[in-house]
DUF1232 domain-containing protein
Amino acid sequence: MLFGKNKNKFYFNPGNRDTGVDENYVQEEVSKIDEDDVEVVLKNEENIDKKFSGSNGLSKYMELGRIMMSMLKDVKKGEYKNIPWFTIATIVLALLYVLNPMDIIPDFIPGIGYIDDIAVLSIGVGWIESDLHRYLDWRLEHEKGI
């Protein structure tokens, strides 16, 4: 198993915020994510990056996508460990949604086509924010050779 034994553990902690999201629904959707979905995201890194690269206003989301993609790669290589499956699945779900051109608001609609992509990415980041911060801290330490 590529991502270790954490797959069956469910970690959902949106903090003190009321997200209005049914946790049972989220758990059900997360349980549908498998390693093939992770591979689809990793193989489409360039397409996901291109989606947000067209606008300066989306650069923040492009950087978040790159961080999430980097986390997936480091987990796959076995360099970054002890990450809950929920975090991996959340990243995969968010990036698969971004990759899909025909979502709730089709991307070809000028001006508003990316609103739903940004919303899904933002909600996902909100759910896994502490894991992203731990990853970034780890990456800084890893790059320094500490």
Notes: The helical segments are 23-32, 35-43, 45-53, 59-76, 85-99, 115-144. Residues 20-144 form one domain. The radius of gyration is 15 Å. The chain has one domain: 20-144.
